[in-house]
Amino acid sequence: xxxxxxxxxxxxxxxxxxxxxxxxxxxxxxxxxxxxxxxxxxxxxxxxxxxxxxxxxxxxxxxxxxxxxxxxxxxxxxxxxxxxxxxxxxxxxxxxxxxxxxxxxxxxxxxxxxxxxxxxxxxxxxxxxxxxxxxxxxxxxxxxxxxxxxxxxxxxxxxxxxxxxxxxxxxxxxxxxxxxxxxxxxxxxxxxxxxxxxxxxxxxxxxxxxxxxxxxxxxxxxxxxxxxxxxxxxxxxxxxxx
Length: 242
Ligand code: MG
Hints:
Blueprint: H1 2-18, E1 50-53, E2 61-62, E3 72-74, E4 77-79, E5 87-89, E6 96-103, E7 118-122, E8 126-130, E9 165-172, E10 175-176, E11 182-184, E12 187-192, E13 195-202, E14 223-225, E15 233-241
Antiparallel strand pairs: 1-15, 2-5, 3-4, 4-15, 5-14, 6-9, 6-15, 7-8, 7-14, 9-12, 10-11, 12-13
């Protein structure tokens, strides 16, 4: 009985709202007007991007060990020089959209995790795996496009050895409370060669080689590219801060 009364009352109040005259204009939203951005043409960055590597030099990068980045630049690409360590951006970032193109060696050497291994690390600790996963077997949560040891890519859209491939990554940094608690974990979306392979997945912490991930609070951080001992190349690298 009480329920029926509530429903009747609700209807009484709802009817005037429903009978209100709606016009198309009432649901048009005229602000804010999105800022104008000129899209890149054929593999070039959009007008509001921060270019991290345009094929000429490593001025946006440094060695995490200190000093300048030790990788090789030739033919418009930068290539891992084994043993020099990874390279990281001089600038620190929070939430970003990153475009990066990569190429594993044309000459196939090694197998599994030893074949064309590198990686894109946000905050130097959250890895989107770079690997030659073209007809090559490894654990799927460690193949190309995996969030290393946390998320298997939805599909394997890897091109063959020696071919250029793209990653478009939207990385949302974790949010921490003042006491260090995780308010919201890191969230990542990845398109590999234009195909969605990670759809808004949550990270359970830094991508660990051994053991269980566990967050520690941090602020902005560098984007790092991994030296895993294989001569993987990169070019056309740009980022947009979100
Ligand atoms: Mg790696």
